[in-house]
Structures are given as C-alpha cells and as structure tokens.
Amino acid sequence: MTKSKQIKHPLIVLAADHAGYKAKEAAKSFLTAEGYNVLDVGAHELVEGDDYPVYMTAAAMKVAEDLTGSTKAVIFGGSGQGEAIVANRFPGVRAVVWYGGNEEVIEYSRKDNDANVLSLGARFVDEKTACHVIELWLTTAFSGEPRHERRIAEIDNIE
C-alpha cells in the first residue's frame, strides 16, 4: 500500500486559453504529483482561437467566492496580461503577471501584496520554469506586516 501525499493547499484553480493550454496541463500534472488539490476550470481541450475571458472568469470567481482567502489560482495565456485584467475585475482578487525574468518579483507578489492569482505568459515561459515559479509562488507566505495589510485593505475599499 502506498502512502498518500498530504494535501498542501486547500485549492489551486487552473485556467488557460489555447495559448496557455499546454503549460496548464504541465502545471496540473506537477501540482497533482506534489499533493496539491487542483481544480481545472478549462480549457479542457486545445481549441485554437478560443477566448480567454470565460476561463479566467471561472478561475477568478472561485478565488473571490472563498471567504477564507485560502483558494489560489494560476492562470495561463499568451502574455498573461489580458488574463490578469479579467481576474482583477473581481472583488478580493489580486492577480499578478509574470512572463519571465527576476523570480524575486514572484516572492514579493506574495510577501507584500498577498497575490492570490498568478497569471503566466506561456509564450515567454517554458513549462519547467512555469512549474518552478508556481511552486515558489505557492510556498511564499504573505508577510502580514501592518503596512502591507493596510495597503491591501485600501485596495479592497476601492472595490
């Protein structure tokens, strides 16, 4: 009998359009193998030219609906920009974009901004790097420093 892996996080929601589909599938395999609880809200098949807003809306809604704040999402698109714009339309969602470069940005997005959605530009980040960055993002905790809590509250008040 094999020992089951411990669930590391309550829920990680994944979403992608055609441009991010392969990266999402790689991330889903990686996260599942690492013991994360994963919900894939689509696309569930590669359809060239599909529109990302429907998938990003589904992911952002899952994050926004979780009153505990524990649900996180990783979303994928060509650049990640439009995908983050959609996600940030929902109350309580703090989506950040990464499409390569300095990984310290990933840590700051969690430590200082308590980002709950990571949008990855699949045209600029290979699948191995994407999985590494997702793990870094998920394992970096919010600092809870009062100045950062205050700033997040200010953002929430805008909504």
Give a description of the structure.
- The protein has six helices and five strands; from the N terminus they run βαβαβαβαβαα.
- The chain is α/β, with parallel strands linked by helices and 159 residues long.
- It has a single domain (12-158), classed as 3-Layer(aba) Sandwich (Ribose 5-phosphate Isomerase B, Chain: A).
- Strands 2-1-3-5-4 form a five-stranded parallel beta sheet, with helices on both faces.
- Helix 1 (21-33) crosses helix 5 (127-139), helix 2 packs across helix 3 (81-87) and helix 4 (104-111) runs parallel beside helix 5.
- It starts with 11 loop residues before the first strand and ends with a helix.
- Mean pLDDT is 94; it is low at 1-5.
- Uncertain stretches of 5 or more adjacent residues: 1-5
Indicate the proportion of strand residues.
5-15%
Based on the structure given, which CATH architecture is correct? 3-Layer(aba) Sandwich
Query: What is the CATH T-level topology?
Result: Ribose 5-phosphate Isomerase B, Chain: A
Oligomeric composition of the shown chains = single chain
Q: By CATH's scheme, which homologous superfamily applies? A: Sugar-phosphate isomerase, RpiB/LacA/LacB
Shape: globular
Compact overview of the structure:
By secondary structure, this protein is of the alpha/beta class.
Features:
6 helices, five-stranded parallel β-sheet, alpha/beta, 5 strands, Ribose 5-phosphate Isomerase B, Chain: A, 159 residues, disordered N terminus
